[in-house]
Amino acid sequence: MKGMKIEMSENMYANSEDTEFYTRNHMLGKGTSGTNRDSKTGSRCCMLTAVCLGVLCAVLLVALSLLWFKLNTEIDQLQTSCEAKEKNLGMLSQLDGWRYFRSSFYYVSTEKKTWNEARQHCRERGADLVIINSEEEQKFIAENMGIAWIGLTDMDSEGVWKWVDGSSLTTGYWGSGEPNSKGDEDCVVTGYKSTNVKSWNDYYCNNVEVCICERKINWI
Ligand code: MAN
Ligand code: CA
């Protein structure tokens, strides 16, 4: 049907062109042969170009769809394999006392130590005192946790809280009324007074407490 329509309209177009050429050439006293044929060839050429472009578009569309499908499949596969790896890491870490959470291993010491000794204890295990970057992480470490040292101190400059990697504190989970140091409480514990998420207290660095060590995973 479509083919017929195209052919019909093409004939109509050709016919109207015939008439136009006939009239023009008749008035000029010329025949209708050469120029008319050129025009017909031109219009066929246009049509062919349009068809070619259409086919090209269709091919591109199919290629893009295939690429999109392939990419999505690969992303799905990667996600599944990452989830499986995370699960394995989680299971493995429980074996020797380390717990896994979002790209880090955590370990709670059994012995009580001063803040400096606690930091040393973590470093000897390829870790450092924990740095808390989110509420989720704070919730994770606060779970079933009493008082424990974390990697936060203002021992270099009173009131300027720094993590053990040198970064500044942005969000703190201080207990009510904390920090309240008068210059003598430069190290921070979590789990002070309550099991609430907001449970940090600035404390004497020479007090002896258990500590939470964190070892980040370098995926690269
Ligand atoms: C109270 C509070 C804390 C403080 C300790 C020191 O519990 O004032 O902020 O760190 O005493 O023992
Ligand atoms: Ca305090």
UniProtKB/TrEMBL annotation:
All copies of domain C-type lectin, residue ranges: 101-214
Which Pfam families does the record match to this protein? Lectin_C
GO MF term (any one): carbohydrate binding
Please identify the protein, giving its name as recorded. C-type lectin domain-containing protein
Q: Which residues cross the membrane?
A: 45-69
Q: Which PANTHER family match?
A: MANNOSE, PHOSPHOLIPASE, LECTIN RECEPTOR RELATED
Q: Which CDD domains match?
A: CLECT_DC-SIGN_like
UniProt entry keywords in alphabetical sequence: Lectin, Membrane, Transmembrane, Transmembrane helix
